[in-house]
Design a protein that fits this description.
two-stranded antiparallel sheet, 4 helices
């Protein structure tokens, strides 16, 4: 997967609305969120190309850009590459910085593992 392409697109969207240091809600929704949606589609298509997988739903199949879990995964992959880069640029990788690239990766991993834990224990988010 060419993460650099997605990172450039995120940077372009942020630059377009001059949101490198502060978010203004309306342009954020109109430009950045729209671009993130397109990135999730394109990244899911790349994921499908790389893995050769589709979502088999029994009596029908979905492309990975049509299935919510892989669309969200694709968005997470693209955003993780960008967040890894920007947090390292801004805060380095030391554990003494609360938003260093290393600490951010740990937060992402803990969140993912929390979701796995819920699944292992047969809990669903709606019932929590």
């Amino acid at each position: 997967m060419d993460y650099r392409t997605y990172m450039k697109r995120i940077e372009f969207a942020l630059d377009k609305i001059k949101a490198t240091d502060e978010i203004q809600e309306s342009p954020w929704q109109e430009v950045v969120v729209r671009e993130l949606n397109e990135i999730s589609k394109d990244c899911a298509k790349d994921l499908q190309t790389e893995t050769g997988q589709i979502s088999n739903k029994g009596d029908y199949q979905l492309e990975l850009d049509e299935w919510p879990p892989t669309r969200i995964l694709s968005l997470m992959l693209a955003l993780s590459a960008w967040v890894g880069w920007i947090m390292h640029e801004k805060h380095g990788s030391g554990v003494e910085q609360p938003f260093s690239s290393r600490v951010c990766l740990q937060m992402i991993q803990e969140a993912f593992e929390y979701g796995v834990h819920l699944s292992v224990h047969k809990q669903i988010p709606q019932s929590l």
